[in-house]
Amino acid sequence: MTELFEAFRVTVQGWAEAGLLPSSLAYGFAVNALLAGVIIGPVLGLLGTLVVVKRHAFFSEAVGHSAMTGVAIGILLGEPYSGPYGALFGYCLLFGLGLNYLRNRTGLSADTLIGVFLSMSLALGAAVLLVLAGRINVHILENVLFGSILTVSGVDIALLAVVALLVTVPMLLFYNRFMLASFNPALAQVRQVPVKALDYLFVVLVTLVTVASVKVIGAILVGALLVIPAAAAKILATSLSRFVGLSMLFSLIATLCGILIPMEMELPIPSGAAIILVAGSLFLLSVLARSLLPGLRGAVT
Amino acid sequence: MNAMNGWFKRGAEPIAAAGPQVQFDNVSLQYGQTRVLDGIDLTLSAAEVHALVGPNGGGKSSLVRCLLGLAPHRGTIKLAWPGSPGQIGYVPQALEFDRSLPMSVIDFLAAMQTRRPAFLRPARRQRQQIVDALERVGLGSKAERRMGDLSGGERQRVMMAQGLMPEPKLLILDEPMAALDEAGVAIFESLICELKTEGVTLLWVEHDLAAVRRLADRVTGLNRRLLFSGDPAEELTPERVLDLFSSHPTQRPKKILQRKDQKEMISD
């Protein structure tokens, strides 16, 4: 696996030096970052279609934002600045599972409950960050909060690949059942779909993807890439296969462009912000295309 | 005994029962302080079309939910299958659906019916099954339409098609005609007759009493308690229909109250 990856990197670097690829790819870290984008982009796009269908956009955003608090807690507990994965994963998972557990038990609507939890989590994150500010240089945190391609290591890539596999396999296995459970839970149960268990599985999948994407996209913006490409795809698609295909494609384009463009143009923009800006532009273009092309509005012809 | 039960005389020709006999035994359901169902004793014979009528909030859908195992009821519900247990189909009340969702009718039914992710094109055999089911509800030509572009009645027919896959032996319909247009009603009625000849047991929650008189073998009136159960022609008398839909659950008309009390004495 690592040998294959090394060979790939050397080849890409060779092509970049020969002028076949953008010159920034002559750097090892750039290839790493690009590879991370190629792995994580389509997975986020695929999971995003379920987020949109299940109307879990706000929930995914909240889990994404909880990553900030997770990062802060991790560093406070002495994990490495560049990747406090333990606390990150633990806190996000706890946040998501707790939210899901209380959703059926408080009688509050989901958005109210998420609003409460998100605020509490952000307050905790802000508190911990300010405690940290007295001890370390907070600028180090920028990488984790907004994403940085400089710090993506070979280990990170391997981790990403494993997470991508861990998320994609259950998603493909249960895709239809996730859908059915969101259309009509009663009917889903009659058809032997374990609706509640799937809700928890979904939380775990969102958490895994969030944690894995923190390196490239950053803790603040990772939730956005679960929503924006799928939202843009939903605007343009007329069938489920196009919806999923476009969402994965938009997500991939956003991660690749977001990583390459700042490097090529030597802009001091964090990769996370660049990725989300590209995704947002694709979304706006989709809205524009829909208003210009009546065929996309699902009009019966 | 089972073999005997397997044959029913309806009119002149006997029909082989494929569906189960369903027995509700003292079924009660309570949500908080509210008693939704109170001591329901009811038997649906195998291969009969059994209509469930009653006022809104009278517990019809709750009884269906109990049968489907979706509600925490007391009492027992037994299914006696003529052979090995078969498929149970369920057609819920009109589906709320995000009209902007990019899903064709085929996509939607594939998501219900198959394990292969619905965004991949369904395998030819499964596609054929879906198209066949759609043809049974008169929507064969709309397989590629977006779900959001269908009318409410057409969407209800898609839900019917869903209930037919896989081939059910017990089919539970919760107000299937509520959203149907005229063409849909005709298709629905012929479908019920078709299922009847296949020996499927049908439990059918319905408001339209004329349709119940036309199609049902038996009818049960439900308003928290069991009010009556029997032949639609005999049970659905004009005054009883009036009673059923004008009475409040706590102020039952005398006649029905007496009948209920007798029944309780027997079952106690």
TrEMBL record, chain A:
Main subcellular location of this protein, as a coarse class:
membrane
Short name of one Pfam family: ABC-3
Q: Where in the cell is it found?
A: Cell membrane; Membrane
Q: How does the entry describe its membrane topology?
A: Multi-pass membrane protein
Give GO terms for biological process. Answer: response to zinc ion; transmembrane transport
Q: Which domain of life is it from?
A: Bacteria
Signal sequence: where? none
| Residue spans crossing the bilayer | 25-51, 58-77, 83-102, 114-137, 197-228, 240-261, 273-293
Q: Which family does it belong to?
A: Belongs to the ABC-3 integral membrane protein family.
A GO cellular component entry from the record? ATP-binding cassette (ABC) transporter complex
Q: What is this protein called?
A: Zinc transport system permease protein
Annotated keywords: Membrane, Transmembrane, Transmembrane helix, Transport
Q: Which InterPro entries does UniProt cross-reference here?
A: ABC_BtuC-like, ABC_TroCD
UniProtKB/TrEMBL annotation, chain B:
Locate the ABC transporter domain: which residues?
Answer: 22-249
Q: Which Pfam families match?
A: ABC_tran
Which molecular function term from Gene Ontology is one that the record holds?
ATP hydrolysis activity
Q: Which SMART domains match?
A: AAA
Alphabetical keyword list = ATP-binding, Nucleotide-binding, Transport
| Name of the protein in question | Zinc transport system ATP-binding protein
Query: What is the organism field in this record?
Result: Marinobacterium lutimaris
